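ARCHIVE RECORD
Type: protein–small molecule complex
Small molecule: S-adenosyl-L-homocysteine
Source of inputs: curated submission
Record status: active
Notes field left blank by submitter.
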Amino acid sequence: MAEAPRLFVEDELALSDPVIFDPAQTNYLTRVMRLRTGDGVRLFNGRDGEWHAQLEVDGRRARAVLRRQTRAQYVPPQLSLVFAPLKKTRTDFLIEKATELGATELAPIMTAFTQTQRVKEERLRALVIEAAEQTERLDVPDIAPVQSLSNLLAGWPEARPLFYCDERGAARTMADELVAVGPGPAGVLVGPEGGFSETERQQLRALPFVRPVTLGPRILRAETAAVAALSLWQSGVGDWHDIPYLP
Ligand code: SAH
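STRUCTURE (tokenized, with ligand):
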């Protein structure tokens, strides 16, 4: 039998408290997945690990009674993806892949050449939850409020490296920078399809925590650059070396 469906919930997860599903989750479980009373579900909330629970369906209401914790909470290495929103389907792709690749925060920024002016944070939240459910993460990436590049840089912790993916100008490779910087909380910054303006590039390069990196001699689309940089970081100093949380 296929593994029990896996759902993110906001509630506390503890043996004593059943989880009451909201109408959308109830619809998914009973209509889409066609689950009935007694069927198993897996639940996580980003804090209490993963639990096996049993469904109880009563008319239009559904709840789950927790049976046992199946995985302990895992706190992944802290990695922000700072990105300029792209066209809708490309942003969706970027959000999904960043969640699969273990980004712990997604920070949308407005830049000189950002094409999209509106970002629906709620939509981003729905996308990261869906991707986290299917990729077996135990946490869901945070979505930072949309802000300007300048604001983001002004609030950035000085000790935290921000790997600035720069397709022009002299930059070291990600691998070299990772050797220099080592593990610890970090960010990856990827520009919009039009790249960063000359003013922005100078602004970035003047900051001590900004680490310009190249991703090779080809110009990548922004979402490809994000996938490449996140992968290199995870492989170099992230959690690809030990897989501590899969059962
Ligand atoms: N419009 C620009 C290209 C922007 S590509 C131009 O025509 O030159 C979009 C973003 O992806 C860039 O801002 C950069 O952050 C990242 N990127 C793409 N290719 C890259 C590379 N080879 N090295 C580093 N970053 C890259």
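CURATOR ANNOTATION: The pocket of S-adenosyl-L-homocysteine is lined by residues 165-167, 190-191, 193-196, 214-216, 218-220, 222, 225 (CB under 6 Å).
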